[in-house]
Amino acid sequence: MRALILAAIAASASAQVTFDDLKNPSKRPGDWLTYSGNYQAHRHSPLTAIHAGNVANLGIDWIYQAKIVEKFQSTPLVVDGVMYVTIPPSDAVALDAATGVKLWEYKRRLPPKIQTCCGQVNRGFAVLGDRLFMATIDAHVIALDRKTGRLLWDTEMADIKLGYSATHAPLVTKDSVIAGVAGGEYGVRGFLDAYDVETGKRRWRFNTVPGPGEFGNETWAGESWKTGGAPIWITGSYDPETNLTYWGTGNPGPDWNGEVRKGDNLFSCSVIALDASTGERKWHFQFTPHDMHDWDATQIMMLLDRPFRGANRKLLVTANRNGFYYVLDRVTGEYLHAKAYVKQDWAREIDDKGRPVRAPGKLPTPEGNRVYPQVAGGTNWNSPAYNPATGLFYVPAREGSSLYYFGEAKYTPGARFQGGYFNNERVMEDWHGAVRALNPETGALVWEHKLFIPPWAGLLSTAGGLIFSGTEDGYFKALDAKSGKELWHVNLGGRVIAGPISFAAGGKQRIAIAAGSGLFVFGLPGQTARQQ
Ligand code: CA
Description:
By secondary structure, the protein is mainly beta. It has helices spanning 2-14, 19-23; strands at 44-45, 59-65, 77-79, 82-87, 91-96, 102-106, 126-128, 131-135, 140-145, 151-156, 171-173, 176-180, 191-196, 202-207, 237-239, 244-248, 270-275, 281-286, 302-308, 311-319, 324-329, 335-340, 347-350, 356-358, 369-371, 385-387, 392-399, 402-406, 420-423, 432-438, 445-451, 460-462, 466-470, 475-480, 486-491, 501-505, 508-515, 518-523. The protein has a single domain (2-531), classed as Methanol Dehydrogenase, Chain A, CATH 2.140.10.
């Protein structure tokens, strides 16, 4: 066994991951090198051995039990037969991707009191060369040696005593690791940072809440920018041709009381397009100006090159928590189109500049006001997917409303700063979910697969014509990418609230998903390399 492990480590050490690999992941189709599978955030695998005609035979190859009670939201990376998985709160393991045999583990010592809104979660690694990068729950960025799990550098991003934390998988571009901070429910002042992959030294910082003298500071009344939130908690995307990186930002602080932060509150609930080398802002687009519903724009910003109204465009598309699907020009930031993809009643329309025209009487009130979509949004952080063959955008959708309450907002460093609250239990009668396939140009619905409960799992598209999705009640499913027809399912006995991936190891295609406290890896029985 030890010889096998050493051989696997030696094999992985020989496989360097270069910036060119990250730009062209289809050259390494058996690997999964970034959180979203490619820089364009398509979460699509080019592997075809598992397809609509044989997916019904899919079975479990191996399981890794993480023995945790925390929510397991990690997307694994796979490099040349070795899988790297972050384990909440901020631990990690390397596993032989063909067998699940553990090669090394990393355990992080954490301070006793870390404030987080929604659990001490972690969503995954970034990789470059022989290094792995993680943003840890104590708001540090760290680098690990990919061969051994040894800590190489450890840089603090922010002070946890002020309510900062970090949960998303970083993004590596060229020689920088880009990561930001969570804490939007604690009145933090958000930012996005870039660090030297070799040393961990900070290269740049972009304040997602501008201070005095910075563009947009006037969109915050008085001193409200100091506690303005706009955190970063899902991985951005990147266009190597323009060297622009795109990140969605979270809610303004406090969440539900907007009276203490009058103005549009830039750059909360926005997408920011930054020069990846300098952190300079090229453009921004705010989906929900002066948000009062906790509708963070921390959804995946997907990049598509395709026709829009007859002309080829470089697009950025995203299904936002506020219930609308958006199409932007990703070079200029020009607003092109929006369409509701779930029931919403807070906006009459989106105007021709992309600004919502609010419906009257839909803000939070002291008595509680029922508004669609629900506080978790029409979708949330869980990944959408894109299949280049069908040309469809797939989104995990959430239907339903919440009661939104306006409340007092008094800032105390390190304490919750939300200015209200919400209630779901009294208005859940029409809650449900769906996997929806949208026309990416128009946002029009092409098909849907209904789910009993709004989903927290991300989607995976494969070139075998499949969409994989998970559910709150433990199901992991394969759908036909063209029609949405369910082709296979299994119940894994735990919440599926992570993003699936596909990779090849031991000569066969596999699918991996976290569920409950386990990581489950599936393949076809008896399949060999010849069938790939
Ligand atoms: Ca939030």
